[in-house]
Amino acid sequence: MTHPIAPLIIRGEVITDNLIEVGGRGGDLAFLTPDAHKYIDKLPLGNPAKLADLYELSFEDILDYCVALGERLEYSKNRYLQEACELSYLTAPTTPTIVRASYMGLQHMLTREFIREMVETTVGVDYLEGWVKQTLLDGTELEVRCFGARTLHIVAGNAVSLSLWTIIRNMVLRSDAIIKAPSNDPFTALAIARTMIDMAPDHPLTKHLTVAYWKGGDQALEQRLYQPQNLEKIVAWGGFASIKHVTQYIQPGLELISLDPKRSASIIGEATFASEASMREAAVRLAADIGAINQKGCVCARVIYVQSGTDEDGLARLNTFGQYVYEAMLGLPNTLSTAPKRYDQRLKAEVDALRLDDEWYKVIGGKDGEGAVICSQIPEPVSFSTSLDDRTANLVPVDSLDEMMDAVDSYTQTVGVYPESIKDQLKDVLPLYGAQRIVSLGYAAAMKFAAPQDSLEPMRRMGKWISNQIASPETTAAPWLRPSI
């Protein structure tokens, strides 16, 4: 059997020598890739002065490049994306229709207006283009500018768009990026990089992107690469173990920007049950938040606190709503959600065990591995709530909004809320408990480049914020002229 090749891209150079066989996550695909150990000395940029060519570009030049790249990323015309998509059917945690739709949507991330909005909101174009001046109270003139950095990106593979998101951020910041491709998406960043090379092989933005694959935890390679003389920042997406692993390399001069694992929840207010129509609307919205990319994202709802009431009538409302959610989930478009690729068997065993305990739990669906809605008959989530996955969610009945604070903790990323009218009661309180993002129910997967992420501002963190103070005795009190005591 001929194995596909995932080349090594080093700043415009496509390398296919010194191949070794590795396996994608899930065991469905083995592929060949250059042994990163053989190129360890070429992976880092080296002298940071080599970033200077990026500063010959204006922001408009960068936007021109992005727009041209977007035109080249039209799926129907890009063989690299097509090949990556076909291979990703085997490595991705999601099903083919979701994977294909994700590839087809990449080009829409590269419009001039979209990128300008992101940059203005998160950094400010003026800070990237030059020194922004202000005069302080003591007469000092202060100039501030955001510079790029030598950065390693350990990208997550649960969504195809994350690789392009990373590349866009790198380009507008005028940074040098090494992308460590994930085992469940080893081909997307490569396809984009190869498109960039075909389009503009000698362009500075092309020449400051490296894409490599190596097995996570390879300490022999990482101990040499993860050093301040090579890198200034590591942006790491991933699970608890992988983030914890990276922290051992952090030292003065090497910063970690951690986009670590999160869980998300939802809150359904009492007014939802005022009519059949509002129950149905909330059910569709909630189904979208549960089912998006088959619940593989941190943004996806897992435990849902429902203000249905906990008496007999309240539980009846909860169970009816749970049935509506299940039906809506099965009707979602296959570009957003499908029956899971592989229903986690340990999770299925937990769910099936609850079927025997109908006094405490009502399980709707799940017998065929299509996903399930678990309606707690007590105001508590299931014991395995942190393991909910594969379109399996838990509805928990409560009597008051105060009880819904149990839905969030320091691991909570997104909280979807319905109806909109209760947001004002919640949006100043939920963050105190740990919630990082509050959205209208149904929009959890609609991540916005212009918004903060995981309660931090990654774009600002990825840049280096440099100040220049201009002062003289004529304008600012001089330290050396202070009177003696």
Provide a quick synopsis of the model:
This is Long-chain-fatty-acyl-CoA reductase. Helix 10 crosses helix 11.
Tell how many strands the DSSP assignment holds: 19
Category by helix and strand content:
alpha/beta
> Which percent range fits the helix content?
25-40%
Q: Averaging pLDDT over every residue, what do you get?
A: 94
- Counting H and I runs of at least 4 residues, what is the number of helices? 15
What would your notes on this structure say?
The chain is α/β, with parallel strands linked by helices. It folds into 2 domains: 254 residues, Aldehyde Dehydrogenase, Chain A, domain 1 (3-Layer(aba) Sandwich), CATH 3.40.605.10; 178 residues, Aldehyde Dehydrogenase, Chain A, domain 2 (3-Layer(aba) Sandwich). It is 31% helix and 20% strand. Strands 2-1-9-8-7-10-11 form a 7-stranded mixed sheet, with helices on both faces. Helix 10 packs across helix 11. The longest helix has 19 residues. The protein is globular, with a radius of gyration of 25 Å. The model has no long low-confidence stretch (mean pLDDT 94). This is Long-chain-fatty-acyl-CoA reductase. It comes from Zestomonas insulae. Keywords: NADP. Pfam families: LuxC.
